[in-house]
């Protein structure tokens, strides 16, 4: 199944456009996991088990695993998700941005080692940095466009000769030239709903990965109204810390499930 087909199915299956970001920080783990050699795997596995009924996918951030020398735990986690929750797309948040054979190996890492359904990439080096991923036609390629951090404006708001901000130029390139196989999506931050609306208008029904709600302060109602497509779908609204660390007490699993349920319901409640 292609990434976009799997994503569409997930939106319907759980009636959800909420994606849970897996950013495991051992310093914030509950007491029962402290000091365990496989704590990262066990924590993320429990989060997935707790939230799976309420989400449309999972987004492991590779840096949180790599910094702890836990890439093998990430491999095991991805395998577990594929086996137990095959309906959930796995988006590897890696933000890769190199070219040539290096990009080819980054694609192999994402799509073969971790068997992710999609990966986030940076377009700063142009089409050469995107092409190796597009060759995996069944996989998703999620391209940074208007990011949720304030400093993104340093580059993304620069005007082209056509007086178009760079982030809109990227949206146009992806929509008009790079998305030939219908496998692309864009990253747009919930902290900038006006820009989300402009990107949505420019790219039509293309999926949008929207980080920035929860701990980063993005407004759910503004995000949904700006980002949904004509069918009322089209979004992977990511929340990480607000769900992962909803509690560090013995009820942390239940707290994560409740946070995911409430966030999904808040997204669905937007008129």
TrEMBL record:
Keywords: Decarboxylase, Lyase, Pyrimidine biosynthesis
InterPro entries assigned to the protein according to its UniProt record, in alphabetical order: Aldolase_TIM, OMPdecase_AS, OMPdecase_type-2, OMPdeCOase_dom, RibuloseP-bd_barrel
GO molecular function, one term: orotidine-5'-phosphate decarboxylase activity
All copies of domain Orotidine 5'-phosphate decarboxylase, residue ranges: 17-256
One GO BP annotation of this record: 'de novo' pyrimidine nucleobase biosynthetic process
Keyword Ribonucleoprotein: no
Record flagged with keyword Lyase: yes
Residues annotated as catalytic: 95 (proton donor)
Domain of life of the source: Bacteria
SUPFAM superfamilies xrefs: Ribulose-phoshate binding barrel
Pathway annotation: Pyrimidine metabolism; UMP biosynthesis via de novo pathway; UMP from orotate: step 2/2
Reaction(s) catalysed by this chain's protein: orotidine 5'-phosphate + H(+) = UMP + CO2
Gene3D superfamilies referenced in this protein's UniProt entry, alphabetically: Aldolase class I
EC number from the UniProt entry: 4.1.1.23
Cited NCBIfam families: pyrF_sub2
HAMAP family: OMPdecase_type2
Family classification: Belongs to the OMP decarboxylase family. Type 2 subfamily.
Protein name, per record: Orotidine 5'-phosphate decarboxylase
């Amino acid at each position: 199944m292609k990434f976009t087909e799997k994503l569409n199915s997930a939106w319907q299956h759980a009636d959800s456009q909420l994606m849970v970001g897996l950013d495991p920080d051992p310093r914030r783990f509950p007491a029962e996991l402290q000091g365990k050699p496989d704590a990262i795997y066990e924590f993320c596995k429990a989060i997935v088990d707790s939230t799976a009924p309420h989400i449309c996918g999972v987004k492991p951030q590779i840096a949180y695993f790599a910094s702890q020398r836990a890439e093998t735990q990430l491999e095991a986690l991805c395998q577990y998700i594929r086996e137990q929750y095959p309906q959930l797309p796995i988006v590897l948040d890696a933000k890769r941005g190199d070219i040539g054979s290096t990009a080819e190996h980054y694609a192999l890492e994402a799509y073969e080692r971790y068997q992710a359904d999609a990966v986030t990439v940076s377009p700063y080096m142009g089409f050469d940095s995107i092409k190796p991923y597009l060759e995996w036609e069944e996989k998703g390629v999620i391209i940074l466009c208007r990011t949720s951090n304030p400093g993104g404006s340093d580059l993304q708001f620069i005007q082209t000769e056509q007086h178009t901000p760079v982030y809109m130029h990227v949206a146009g390139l992806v929509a008009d030239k790079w998305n030939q196989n219908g496998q692309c999506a864009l990253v747009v931050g919930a902290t900038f709903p006006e820009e989300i609306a402009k990107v949505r208008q420019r790219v039509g029904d293309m999926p949008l990965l929207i980080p920035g709600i929860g701990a980063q302060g993005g407004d759910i109602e503004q995000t949904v109204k700006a980002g949904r497509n004509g069918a009322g779908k089209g979004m992977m609204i990511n929340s990480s810390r607000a769900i992962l660390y909803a509690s560090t007490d013995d009820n942390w699993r239940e707290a994560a499930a409740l946070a995911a349920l409430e966030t999904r319901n808040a997204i669905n409640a937007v008129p």
